[in-house]
């Protein structure tokens, strides 16, 4: 009896330690991903002040400070992903932060729009390491619907940053200036990187590392394109990222210039971010029950229908009221909360054996799709929000068609497999039974 009690206590302690370890892992991964979100969202309230100091005449050029960091995030992954498969995850994270720190200093000392754009591009390249490598680290440890569940909980914490970052940036502007925002990014990054160095074990064991060579990335691409689910899911991520990037890059212009909500903008932005956080939290609890594919396809359809409805209703009409627009953005982001984590998990699921390169290809390709989409749609957003509705409707509709194509192709493959089984396996089994009965 006493022995059973000791075994029970030891088992419970082991489970508690494991839960604490997983919780810390989730928080660390979310913090790494949040560095990019903080560098984007904390700067939003300061775009007008930066524009004045750098003498930017066209307010639409402010969007470049958001779009260029996304471009850097996409391009940098081509290096950080393969390197992490070869050198390990942690060293690449540290190298990325070093590049980010130098880029932040360049932004602080910028005297022109061109210098600021270069600084933001380099910031994105540096931040691509923690963003890409953290996704590879999740794939190192988890797979399937449970990976989607972990990704959802990571996203919940990750979403806290967009909720508080604009208000934090606004607070720094009140007491200091826009340069203080970049300094705060450096400090936050140093804290997170120190935490990774001290507490996070390396997830890529020595025997799973690949020798670094020039053809490493090319071989990874060849392996990646063999998996239909990864390729199609990457295209979907690109379309959804393009829609989200349009919202991020144009929200300041829409709310502050079209609606005159200058002081209210950080709080509106934060409140809207809470919607996507709620959705990702719910997704973490629902994905194991319903599956990542079913949830992603259902909410993608809702997103497309919502955007199409607004594009149709406000065609050739004045802007909707701020209340209706906020409700639209709230629903849009809520739906996105059920899409991003699940579609990313669908893309990563078949390529666990090349997680670093796979995450890099996923991130780079989706960004390569998203940046031109955001730039093109954003160029039409001047005195009306209608181009945003049209852009989101197109992105949502194409993404929905792709995910239902994926469903059709998977069903067709399963059906073909069953037919092969009927034609080949069943006759063999029948012949085997007849042979056994004749022997009997």
Structure explained in plain terms:
- The protein is mainly α and 440 residues long.
- It has a single domain (17-200, 215-425), classed as Up-down Bundle (Growth Hormone, Chain: A), CATH 1.20.1250.
- It is 83% helix and 0% strand.
- The chain has helices spanning 2-41, 47-53, 64-87, 89-108, 113-141, 144-175, 179-199, 216-224, 228-258, 265-290, 292-313, 322-337, 340-348, 355-378, 386-439.
- Helix 6 (144-175) packs across helix 13 (340-348) and helix 11 runs antiparallel to helix 15 (386-439).
- The longest helix has 54 residues, at 386-439.
- Residues 6-18 have low confidence and may be disordered.
Catalogue the unreliable spans: 6-18
Rg from Cα: 24 Å
The run of helices and strands is: HHHHHHHHHHHHHHH
Q: What structural category arises from helix and sheet content? A: mainly alpha
What name does the CATH topology carry? Growth Hormone, Chain: A
Relative strand content: under 5%
Question: What percent of residues adopt helix (DSSP H or I)?
Answer: over 70%
**CATH architecture title:** Up-down Bundle
CATH superfamily: MFS general substrate transporter like domains
Number of helices: 15
Count of distinct structural domains: 1
The number of distinct β-strands equals 0
Which CATH C-level class is it? Answer: Mainly Alpha
Distance between the termini: 53 Å
Oligomer: single chain
Mean pLDDT: 81
Largest sheet: none
Shape: globular
């Amino acid at each position: 009896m006493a022995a059973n009690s000791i075994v029970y206590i030891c088992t419970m302690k082991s489970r508690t330690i494991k839960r604490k370890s997983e919780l810390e892992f989730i928080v660390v991964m979310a913090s790494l991903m949040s560095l990019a979100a903080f560098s984007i969202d904390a700067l939003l309230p300061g775009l007008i002040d930066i524009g004045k100091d750098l003498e930017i005449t066209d307010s639409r050029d402010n969007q470049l400070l958001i779009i260029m960091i996304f471009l850097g995030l996409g391009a940098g992954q081509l290096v950080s992903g393969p390197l992490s498969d070869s050198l390990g995850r942690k060293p690449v994270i540290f190298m990325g932060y070093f590049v980010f720190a130098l880029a932040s200093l360049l932004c602080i000392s910028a005297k022109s729009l061109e210098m600021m754009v270069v600084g933001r591009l380099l910031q994105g390249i540096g931040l691509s390491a923690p963003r890409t490598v953290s996704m590879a680290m999740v794939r190192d440890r988890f797979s399937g619907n449970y990976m989607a569940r972990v990704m959802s909980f990571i996203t919940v914490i990750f979403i806290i940053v967009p909720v508080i970052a604009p208000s934090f940036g606004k607070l720094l502007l009140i007491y200091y200036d826009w340069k203080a925002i970049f300094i705060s990014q450096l400090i936050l990054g140093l804290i997170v990187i120190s935490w990774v160095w001290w507490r996070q074990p390396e997830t890529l064991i020595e025997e799973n590392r690949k020798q670094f060579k020039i053809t490493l990335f090319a071989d990874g691409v060849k392996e990646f394109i063999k998996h239909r689910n990864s390729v199609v899911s990457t295209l979907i991520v690109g379309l959804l990222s393009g829609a989200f990037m349009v919202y991020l890059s144009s929200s300041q212009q829409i709310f502050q210039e079209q609606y005159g909500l200058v002081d209210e903008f950080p709080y509106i932005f934060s409140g809207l971010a809470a919607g996507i956080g709620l959705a990702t939290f719910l997704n973490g609890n629902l994905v194991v029950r319903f599956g990542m594919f079913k949830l992603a396809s259902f909410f993608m359809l809702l997103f497309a229908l919502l955007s199409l409805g607004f594009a149709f209703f406000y065609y050739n009409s004045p802007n909707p009221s701020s209340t209706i627009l906020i409700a639209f953005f709230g629903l849009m982001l809520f739906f996105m909360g059920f899409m991003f984590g699940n579609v990313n998990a669908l893309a990563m699921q078949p390529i666990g054996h090349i997680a670093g390169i796979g995450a890099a290809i996923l991130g780079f390709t989706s960004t390569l799709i998203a940046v031109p989409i955001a730039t093109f749609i954003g160029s039409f957003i001047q005195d009306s929000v209608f181009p945003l509705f049209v852009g989101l409707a197109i992105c949502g509709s194409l993404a929905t068609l792709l995910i239902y194509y994926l469903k059709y192709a998977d069903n067709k493959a399963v059906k073909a497999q069953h037919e092969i089984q009927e034609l080949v396996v069943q006759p063999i089994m029948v012949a085997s039974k007849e042979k056994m009965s004749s022997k009997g």
